[in-house]
Amino acid sequence: MDLGIKGKKALVCASSKGLGKASALALAQNGVDLTICSRTPEAIEAAADEIRSATGVTVHAVACDITTPEGREKALAPFDAKIDILVNNAGGPPPGNFRDWTRDDWIKAVDGNMLTAIDLIKATIDGMIERKWGRIVNITSGAVKSPIAILGLSNGARAGLTGFCAGIAREVAKDGVTINGLLPGPFDTDRLRGNMKIQAEKAGVDFETFFAQHGAEHTAGRFGTPDEFGQTCAFLCSAHAGYINGQNLLMDGGAFRSTL
Ligand code: NAD
């Protein structure tokens, strides 16, 4: 299917690997020119090379911390903030016990997983409105819908972003701009593997066996693949998805039990 977005310009944040990179690649496969970013120059250059040689689109690789104002300025610079598609993403806050979290821990989480995305939306949305076309996808977490206590920092910050976007999505729809959340369940990325390695070590069991067992026990009998996530993200950014707005799509293989 032609997604109808060839020639559009996108900023995909936190995208040297994992879900961000998969989303960037899926957009590039549909002819979208990109800015991608992550903190390490080597990693983001390598991802950009891979996407360029696989698709032939223009890829600007920016080494920056997207959670800082300077980082966001650098990430917006290649397209002079005139982007058609914004995919918000950043590393998630660490797990823990809420009794241990200080005010600084909360500020860092809210900054990284709520205010960063809001700032990028603020910097780009009026241009989208003027051009009468725009797509914003926030990569958040299944924990927004089905919270996990040890991920309290993530639950709180991401719920804040979701609430903010629920309001503005209704304001911009008439100008051809949509804002949606894409909520990952467990996807086989370095982050998931890293978290499970810690759990396996704590349980004193072999990581590969632990990982395979958890995948097999999942409702879908496996973890999600980054490609499945990226292709779904690209569809939400497509011409065909113009009437999907203000939604939060849970991608967890059906693990969350609800009728609707
Ligand atoms: P990942 O660790 O595989 O990749 C994260 C990417 O973000 C990397 O490219 C990293 O360099 C980049 N990054 C991190 N912090 C950054 C920053 N401050 N500035 C610029 N780049 C930064 O992680 P992932 O699994 O792709 O997860 C992406 C997001 O989705 C995270 O917020 C994570 O919490 C959330 N999430 C993931 C899962 C999952 O199962 N993978 C589930 C729920 C939520």
From TrEMBL:
Highest taxon listed in the record's lineage: Bacteria
PANTHER family membership: 3-OXOACYL-(ACYL-CARRIER-PROTEIN) REDUCTASE, NADPH-DEPENDENT REDUCTASE BACG
Protein family (similarity comment): Belongs to the short-chain dehydrogenases/reductases (SDR) family.
Protein name in the entry: SDR family oxidoreductase
Lineage: Bacteria, Pseudomonadati, Pseudomonadota, Alphaproteobacteria, Rhodospirillales
